[in-house]
Amino acid sequence: MSAYINGNLAIEPKPTKKSKVQEKKKVVVKRKTIPVQEKLLYLFTVIVCVLVAGVIIWRYAQIYELNTRMQKIESQIKALQIENNKLKLEITKYQDPKRLLDQAKSLGLVPNEELNQVTKSSSGSDSVAMKKE
User: Is the model's pLDDT at 121 over the cut of 70?
Assistant: First the structure.
């Protein structure tokens, strides 16, 4: 049927235009690869950087540990100083002459006047001698 055009079979059909699709070729640029020596240099540099960072982190960990130990020891020292001060106050309380005299009297001891006069004359001090009745 394509040969029958406008009632005439003698006319040759006109060739239809076929569009040609041109294939485009991509130009691939191949990059040069990095030489082995340069790759090894980069690898060595990365390894050295990782080792240095590891050493630095390790040292900071040690410093942190020492700081925590130091803080614990300082808190123990403060607690011991507080306890020491309490004990010093207790010692001064127990060494108070008035308290000692009252305690001696409560135990039934009375001052000995003869011993008191002898000790005053011999030593010159104001010590009090007690005797049990």
Answer: no
